[in-house]
Description:
Largest sheet: 3 strands, antiparallel
Shape: globular
Number of strands: 3
Radius of gyration: 17 Å
Distance between the termini: 38 Å
Amino acid sequence: GNDLPFFALVVSLSYIFPFRVFSELFKLRIVDISVEGEDEPLGAQKLRVWLDRRKNRPLRHDLWRPCTCKVTHDEDGTSGSVLCPVHIFLTLREQLPSFTRMRHLPASQQAELTLMDSFVPSTLNPLFRQASHATGDPLADRASFHGLRRGMACDLALDKGKLWGILAAVDWRAAAFRVSLSSFFSSIHPRA
């Protein structure tokens, strides 16, 4: 439906960065997300976002992710373009109501317009559960967007990630990571 570009952007950005959907992604202003090197060769671009704060970082700071279109996953040969943060954002941004609104607002009002403007947060988890059912998730009734943050940490661990790298990527403190890791330790331990 009309929510598909929005949903795809929420899922991909929440996994890639990994955002807390309601307290971080929904507060992200359009002026705080940009593509650097958009005219550069494939693989040289970066998607940069500025957050006013995160749970573990009270001060304004930036996060960035590189274009992954030229990367190939070692295990199964999957192309990095599948979850390229730069090109997913570039493909979907023009379809978002917030970008349409921004073009019609005076510059003085653009600064407070959020990326997820016009979308109702309460519709997200039901949509996520519906998508989880459609993909055959046996726990689809309990699916939520927090699972994307945990999934990113799990994927990094499966990819032989080091603890400090996982903590930094997911922006967790060690104590929070240990609690979350203990809930899925048995499934990743033999392969991590």
